[in-house]
């Protein structure tokens, strides 16, 4: 018995010694601040610390205003032909049309305490149900659509929360500068409350082919699927844009809708559920270097009017085919895309002064914009001009076209290996004017070309179907 007790004491003592050794060994295995070592960098720049704290402050202050959005939609699938055939009716009489359930994720942000939320239209489009999860409490609410605007990809939805919500603060996006900090908060790949940081890479991006009206902010703050509809913030925590799109083939290239552009859309969606825009009533195309040269413009800028719609504000205001629109309400028109945006953002019924370049001089014209809701309203369209006239076979205009009041000469054939074919001229095109000189006959056509050769370029006015186009062609 005594021997057993002694053996037990010895084993217990050995275990204590071993355990103590392990603790000492563990303590020496790593170093941590406040024990055996100090931080590797003792002095950090105050600027870096201030920036780091600024990001943390923004995230803490704004995250409660950011929401996660999930939607469910049901898409009816087409049934195979043999299912619909009466020969197989007995075999498939029990089969019902297939419906596929689809889900999607996105983001949004609260714009007032009553539960109005801004997001992208493509996030909630065709949704049968919309669920919104709050970042502040993780509570989930059903939302209803207040209004949608597919042309800018903006939508407003609403939830009925139990208590007043924290709204995001909207900035003045006109004041942002390239190089400023940009912070994105959203729900990429379903990972809620994700924060990414970058800079404003560019502003005024258009011609991307993403939406009808484009004026994007470009940023390298990471934006991924699920970020759509979430806010892009400045260092003060104010919303400068709505995250919208990414370039799939690139990295660090994301786009956001400027919040100033969104403010007007949001107000209309909340008040009436839809958006009305200003309408000028012209068809436009870009001003190329060749067109600028043929019109004796100092540089290629503005938007060339290739058609004026009958009864439109443009016609009533005195705009003419061949005018180059240089200024809209005092603002310089850089290109055709910018003109579209300026017109769309102008209040309906407002009179604006347009400056056009006509016959070598500037002309000012007052025009009162109408609404795109009018029955005759057509959105301006931008069409790329073509080049080349060599290789065209020209004929007199047929009598039936002359009887309809159409003048000019018709393109009978295009040499497939010619510059004209490469440019896009097509048989049946009617050449109505060259360098703003009206064409009545084939003789007029050739004389106009001879005069154009002395200038070094020719601007063709082409009628194709119901459309008109200007083609600027270098002749030297």
Summarize the structure in words.
The chain has helices at 2-29, 46-62, 81-84, 89-92, 121-124, 259-272, 289-294, 313-317, 336-345, 399-403, 419-423, 442-455, and strands at 66-76, 99-110, 116-119, 129-134, 140-142, 144-149, 154-158, 181-186, 194-205, 216-219, 231-233, 239-246, 254-258, 278-279, 282-286, 303-308, 324-328, 331-332, 351-358, 361-368, 370-371, 392-396, 409-414, 430-434, 437-438, 457-464, 467-474. The protein has 476 residues and is α+β, with helices and mostly antiparallel strands. The chain is elongated. It has a seven-stranded antiparallel β-sheet with strand order 5-4-1-2-3-7-6. A six-stranded antiparallel beta barrel has the order 8-9-10-13-12-11. Strands 15, 16, 17, 18, 19 and 20 form a six-stranded antiparallel β-sheet that branches. It has twelve helices and 27 strands. The longest helix is centred in the first third of the chain and has 28 residues, at 2-29.
Oligomer: single chain
> What does the main sheet amount to?
7 strands, antiparallel
First and last CA, distance: 120 Å
Rg of Cα set: 33 Å
Global outline: elongated
- Number of strand segments: 27
Structural class: alpha+beta
In order across it, which strands form the biggest sheet? 5-4-1-2-3-7-6
Mean pLDDT: 80
Low-confidence segments = 80-88, 375-389
Helix content: 10-25%
Please tally the helical runs, counting DSSP H or I stretches of 4 or more residues: 12
Strand content: 25-35%
TL;DR?
This protein is α+β, with helices and mostly antiparallel strands and 476 residues long. The chain is 24% helix and 33% strand.
């Amino acid at each position: 018995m005594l021997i057993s007790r002694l053996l037990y004491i010895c084993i217990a003592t050995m275990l204590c010694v071993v355990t103590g050794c392990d603790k000492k060994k563990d303590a020496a295995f790593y170093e941590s601040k406040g024990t055996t070592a100090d931080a590797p960098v003792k002095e950090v720049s105050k600027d870096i610390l201030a920036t780091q704290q600024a990001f943390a402050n923004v995230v803490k202050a704004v995250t409660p205003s950011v929401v996660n959005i999930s939607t469910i939609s049901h898409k009816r699938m087409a049934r195979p032909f043999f299912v619909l055939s009466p020969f197989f009716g007995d075999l498939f009489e029990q089969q019902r049309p297939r419906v596929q359930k689809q889900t999607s994720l996105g983001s949004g942000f609260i714009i007032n305490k009553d539960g109005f939320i801004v997001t992208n239209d493509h996030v909630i489009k065709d949704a049968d149900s919309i669920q919104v999860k709050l970042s502040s409490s993780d509570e989930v609410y059903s939302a209803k659509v207040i209004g949608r605007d597919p042309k800018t990809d903006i939508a407003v939805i609403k939830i009925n929360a139990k208590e007043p919500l924290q709204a995001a603060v909207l900035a003045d996006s006109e004041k942002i500068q390239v190089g400023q900090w940009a912070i994105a908060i959203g729900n990429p790949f379903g990972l809620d409350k994700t924060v990414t940081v970058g800079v404003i890479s560019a502003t005024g991006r258009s011609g991307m082919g993403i939406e009808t009206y484009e004026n994007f902010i470009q940023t390298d703050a990471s934006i991924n699927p699920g970020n759509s509809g979430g806010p892009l913030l400045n260092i003060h925590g104010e919303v400068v844009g709505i995250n919208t799109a990414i370039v799939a083939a690139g990295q660090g290239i994301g786009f956001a809708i400027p919040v100033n552009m969104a403010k007007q859309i949001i107000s209309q969606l909340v008040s009436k559920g839809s958006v009305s825009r200003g309408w000028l009533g012209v068809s436009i195309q870009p001003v190329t270097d060749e067109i600028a040269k043929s019109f004796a413009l100092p540089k290629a800028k503005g938007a060339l009017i290739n058609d004026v719609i009958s009864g439109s504000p443009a016609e009533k205001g005195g705009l003419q085919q061949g005018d180059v629109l240089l200024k809209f309400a005092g603002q310089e028109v850089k290109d055709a895309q910018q003109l579209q945006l300026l017109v769309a953002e102008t209040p309906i019924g407002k009179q604006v002064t347009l400056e056009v370049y006509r016959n070598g001089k500037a002309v000012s014209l007052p025009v009162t914009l109408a609404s795109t809701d009018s029955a005759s309203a057509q959105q301006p369209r931008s069409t790329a001009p073509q080049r080349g006239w060599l290789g065209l076979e020209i004929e007199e205009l047929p009598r039936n076209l002359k009887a309809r009041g159409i003048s000019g000469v018709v393109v009978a054939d295009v040499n497939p290996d010619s510059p004209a074919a490469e440019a896009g001229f097509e048989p049946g095109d009617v050449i109505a004017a060259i360098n703003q000189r009206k064409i009545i006959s084939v003789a007029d056509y050739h004389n106009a070309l001879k005069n154009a050769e002395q200038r070094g370029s020719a601007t063709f006015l082409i009628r194709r179907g119901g459309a008109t186009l200007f083609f600027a062609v270098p002749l030297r």
